[in-house]
């Protein structure tokens, strides 16, 4: 059964009518029960051979043609129905000359089919309210191809139409030369965008770790030769061989009668018959030790991969054959024991890394990979070129786990962590999204296991705990590190550091078990921690003015928003907004921005360092996410009512009694230095490094620090920069979810209400806003990746602030309209880019600084085409209003997106942040749905004239090193001086 995600393995809250449109009632259709539905007396097909209790929320059925299905009612989010069609064929099912065909077929099904004309799938689903890429998508893996639809506002007519369209796509796609000519360039663009050093390493690592197996040489994306040589009859033959009812599973979870789902499946798939002969799945092969390997020398294939721009990393794997299992309770108890064993080792490895070890990180993970291998992987990143020392350190920690059992205290700690996670799943089951439930069942089918209700998982775990002894964990740990062959891959930027024989020798060297990484057994209690200060006094309280939310102000100036509700059972969302955000940093402080994102939380609070924070959180649901925004810092966490007071203590202590442990800063410095050069390996990497910096007119605060800049930072400098920032500016605490109001108010008094009064944000920082670059010559960056990769960006300034936020929502419609046209031009017509994007960024906390940005990854020679297309689209919208149908393709998905998102606490927390200091944020909520979903062609034309046509866009090109600009473009170039 699915217990954890296996790697190769909203909420019914209705809002006032003044805010959002009336939800439609769930549709129940009283029909005769389909004959294919299995009764409760029958063993469902998913559970054959298993004694795992059946999750009776699912109904199962099997058609006479062999197609199997599972359906259930789920109202999260309301009115949505999630449909998954799984075909039991992926890249491992391809013949040599068919590599990439499974994924190519995925594209062709969206290109044209029985009920959909050429290139009509995307606009058709948009008219039905589904956003392409999120609500409508597909994925091809080595073992399966899955078509996904999350249909909003799924009334009977929409459901009927959707099943008809999906049946036509899966059963009768139009596979001809014209459609191949259109889709192959798009797949090639996708392949190109994935390329570069990281892809080369991934391919080489897979070839080494799975040597001799089909997985070693079959990536779902295929090869240039097989894709460019694809013929319609060959692709059609692949479709006929694998797209057959006996290879298909349909999963539906949604807000309607599941019997109606079963009826629709029967109506549109019952007469599906495979054409010609099907095929048996090929043998995926086993990991086999090479000649000469034995128990004394189990090391097989090794590889040293030299990539000058990638940081060092080392992987070794203990490989075992994968075999189907009887998915019984005993089997799952074993999986849970394995997971506990891995958690124990990983916690020790993390302690060793934190304490100044020779590696930045290390992790052990068992995985059943693509029904090809049962493997235990050990991954780590050496801090220096002394990879042997890092390997020895990692192996010594593992050797200790293999030689001596863990302590009962260590086991109890991990058991408590697992228990709280499983209990949270039970508490949150009523609001589990249907899309996730459907995906989980598809994953279970793929790995040939069952699925289980959260209550079953918790019961299995709790019933086995008396058998979770030190001796049992030791036995399971030893089994995880036994296998037929050991393989290893070392990635390094330098030649001469290692050879393949060196890797073999190092893995065979004996190591001494290192017990120093075992964790302290002593517990820490929140009751023993010092108070933040004297409990505060509530100065005033009252309604916020929406949804029954209460606002509270303490005498020290801290403000809070409280919204107790049961929309998400068992969950409490906490957000703390404070201080100045990016405004608080001077130019010289810029490197400490990144260090703060990486190390501020880890540097501790009060008496608690990193390890103590881990220990005090044992068996609790606590979080500590930190983010730097335009004008504010943010702490966030998902907790539960019983842990809320302690969660508030941790957040308040970070502001009132921060700790300044140097080890997290030193570790973050090392991580930053190791990662920096990898940015230059691809166009996307350079944009992630430099785009914010460039779009903010080269403001140093937004620059990614170079290794030289990072070398100038110190733990002392870190404290000097961050200590005043934690004490400055207003504080707003938002608490939404299932909690006791009075108890929470008392906890706030003792934590945030007890903080000293905040110092004001300095005037210089308060007025600091980022600029926007002048639209002169095109800025050019040079990457060191593949010669056929490039990227292009064009951006225009927009605005910011609350006063014009309604206009920002209309701009979102404009950007979606722009993106549809750019997709048509660059993907559908030219085949030049796989997924061009257009986005709007409107900073609500600043009065300016927003942008409208278009982006695409391309071939270098297509960069001018992108700029020409983007500028032409911008000009055309400004001069010619869009059609009503074109707008509907944008506004209907946006309306559906907002309606679904607005059923969750997170949505309202995002919309209302800052409202205790600015009441306008409450007022503009009431027009939210209309602003995102209602507009006119003339309004779009006016916005395009104002923001897109009033000035030239800022243009940025990322091209390969060594290429002459004349070969890429005729536009003038301005090199970036960094």
Layout of strands and helices, then pairs:
Layout: E1 59-62, E2 68-73, E3 81-87, H1 101-111, H2 121-127, E4 136-140, E5 145-151, H3 156-171, H4 177-194, H5 197-209, H6 224-228, H7 232-242, E6 248-254, H8 258-269, E7 299-306, E8 313-321, H9 329-354, E9 359-369, E10 373-382, H10 387-403, H11 408-428, H12 434-446, H13 454-463, H14 470-480, E11 485-492, H15 500-508, E12 538-543, E13 550-554, E14 559-564, E15 572-578, H16 591-599, H17 610-616, E16 625-628, E17 633-639, H18 644-656, H19 662-676, H20 683-695, H21 707-711, H22 715-727, E18 731-737, H23 741-750, H24 763-766, E19 778-783, E20 790-797, H25 805-829, E21 837-841, E22 851-858, H26 863-879, H27 884-901, H28 905-912, H29 920-923, H30 928-933, H31 937-947, E23 954-960, H32 965-968, E24 973-975
Parallel strand pairs: 2-6, 7-11, 14-18, 19-23, 19-24
Antiparallel strand pairs: 1-2, 3-5, 3-6, 4-5, 8-10, 8-11, 9-10, 12-13, 13-14, 15-17, 15-18, 16-17, 20-22, 20-23, 21-22
């Amino acid at each position: 059964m699915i217990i954890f995600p296996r790697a190769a393995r909203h909420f019914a809250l209705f809002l006032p009518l003044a805010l959002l449109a009336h939800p439609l009632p769930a549709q129940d259709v009283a029909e005769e029960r389909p004959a294919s539905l299995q009764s409760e007396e029958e063993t469902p097909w998913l559970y054959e051979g298993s004694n795992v209790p059946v999750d009776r929320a699912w109904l199962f059925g099997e058609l006479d043609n062999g197609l199997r299905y599972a359906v259930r009612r789920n109202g999260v989010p309301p009115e949505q129905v999630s449909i998954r069609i799984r075909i039991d064929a992926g890249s491992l099912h391809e013949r040599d000359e068919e590599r990439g065909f499974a994924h190519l077929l995925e594209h062709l099904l969206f290109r044209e089919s029985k009920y959909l004309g050429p290139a009509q799938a995307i606009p058709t689903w948009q008219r039905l309210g589904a956003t392409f890429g999120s609500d409508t998508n597909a994925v091809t893996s080595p073992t399966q191809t899955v078509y996904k639809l999350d249909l909003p506002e799924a009334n009977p007519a929409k459901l009927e139409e959707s099943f008809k369209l999906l049946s036509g796509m899966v059963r009768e796609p139009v596979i001809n030369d014209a459609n191949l000519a259109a889709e192959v360039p798009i797949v090639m663009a996708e392949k190109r965008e994935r390329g570069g050093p990281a892809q080369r390493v991934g391919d080489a690592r897979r070839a080494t770790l799975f040597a001799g197996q089909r997985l070693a040489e079959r990536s779902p994306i295929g090869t240039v030769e097989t894709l460019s040589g694809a013929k319609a009859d060959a692709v059609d033959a692949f479709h006929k061989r694998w797209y057959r009812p006996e290879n298909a599973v349909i999963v539906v979870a949604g807000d309607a009668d599941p019997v109606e789902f079963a009826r629709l499946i029967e109506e549109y798939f019952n007469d599906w018959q495979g054409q010609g002969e099907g095929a048996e799945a090929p043998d995926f092969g086993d990991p086999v030790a090479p000649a000469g390997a034995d128990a004394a020398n189990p090391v097989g294939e090794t590889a040293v991969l030299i990539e000058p721009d990638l940081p060092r990393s080392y992987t070794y794997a203990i490989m075992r054959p994968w075999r189907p299992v009887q998915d019984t309770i005993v089997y799952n108890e074993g999986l849970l024991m394995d997971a506990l064993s891995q958690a124990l080792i990983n916690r020790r490895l993390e302690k060793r890394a934190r304490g100044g070890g020779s590696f930045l990180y290390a992790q052990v993970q068992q995985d059943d990979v693509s029904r090809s291998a049962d493997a235990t992987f050990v991954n780590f990143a050496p801090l220096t070129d002394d990879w042997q020392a890092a390997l020895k350190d990692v192996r010594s920690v593992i050797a200790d786990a293999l030689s001596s059992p863990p302590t009962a205290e260590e086991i109890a700690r991990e058991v408590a962590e697992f228990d709280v996670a499983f209990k949270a799943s039970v508490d949150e089951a009523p609001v589990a999204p249907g899309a996730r439930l459907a995906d989980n069942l598809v994953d279970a089918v793929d790995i040939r296991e069952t699925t289980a209700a959260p209550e079953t998982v918790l019961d299995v775990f709790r019933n086995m705990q008396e058998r979770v002894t030190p001796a049992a964990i030791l036995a399971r740990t030893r089994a995880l590190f036994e296998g037929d062959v050991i393989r290893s891959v070392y990635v390094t930027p330098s030649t001469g550091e290692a050879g393949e024989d060196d890797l073999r020798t190092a893995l065979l060297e004996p190591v001494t078990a290192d017990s120093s990484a075992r964790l302290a057994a002593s517990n820490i209690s929140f009751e023993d921690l010092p108070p933040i200060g004297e409990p505060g006094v509530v100065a005033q309280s009252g309604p916020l003015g929406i949804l029954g939310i209460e606002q509270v102000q303490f005498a020290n100036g801290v403000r809070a928003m409280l919204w107790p509700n049961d929309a998400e059972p068992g969950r409490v969302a906490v957000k703390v907004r404070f201080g100045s955000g990016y405004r608080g940093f001077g130019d010289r402080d810029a490197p400490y921005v990144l260090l703060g994102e990486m190390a501020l939380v880890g540097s501790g609070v009060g008496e608690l360092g990193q390890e103590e924070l881990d220990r005090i959180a044992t068996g609790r649901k606590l979080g500590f996410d930190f983010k730097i925004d335009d004008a504010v810092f943010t702490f966030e966490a998902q907790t539960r009512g019983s842990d809320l007071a302690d969660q508030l203590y941790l957040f308040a202590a970070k502001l009132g009694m921060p700790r300044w442990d140097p080890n997290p800063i030193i570790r973050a410095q090392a991580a930053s230095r190791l990662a920096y050069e990898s940015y230059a390996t691809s166009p996307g990497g350079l944009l992630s490094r430099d785009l914010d910096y460039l779009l903010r007119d080269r403001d140093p605060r937004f620059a990614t620090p170079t290794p030289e800049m990072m070398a100038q930072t110190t733990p002392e400098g870190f404290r000097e920069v961050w200590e005043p920032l934690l004490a400055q500016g207003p504080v707003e605490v938002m608490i939404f979810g299932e909690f006791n109001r009075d108890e929470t108010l008392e906890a706030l008094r003792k934590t945030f209400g007890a903080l000293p009064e905040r110092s004001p944000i300095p005037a210089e920082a308060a007025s600091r806003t980022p600029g926007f670059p002048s639209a002169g010559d095109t800025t050019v960056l040079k990457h060191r990746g593949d010669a056929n990769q490039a990227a292009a960006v064009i951006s225009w300034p927009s605005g910011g602030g609350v006063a014009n936020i309604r206009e920002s929502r209309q701009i979102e419609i404009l950007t979606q309209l722009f993106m549809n046209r750019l997709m048509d031009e660059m993907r559908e017509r030219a085949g030049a880019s796989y997924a061009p994007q257009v986005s709007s960024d409107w900073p609500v906390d600043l009065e300016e600084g927003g942008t409208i940005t278009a982006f695409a990854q391309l071939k270098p020679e297509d960069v001018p085409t992108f700029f020409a297309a983007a500028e032409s689209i911008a000009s055309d919208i400004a001069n010619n209003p869009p059609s009503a149908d074109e707008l509907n393709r944008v506004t209907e998905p946006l309306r559906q997106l907002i309606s679904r998102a607005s059923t969750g606490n997170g949505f309202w927390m995002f919309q209302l942040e800052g409202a205790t200091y600015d009441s306008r944020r409450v007022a503009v909520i009431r027009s939210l749905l209309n602003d995102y979903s209602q507009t006119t062609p003339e309004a779009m034309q006016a916005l395009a004239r104002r923001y897109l046509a009033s000035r030239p866009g800022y243009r940025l090109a990322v091209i390969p090193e060594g290429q002459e600009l004349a070969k890429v473009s005729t536009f003038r170039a301005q090199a970036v001086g960094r």
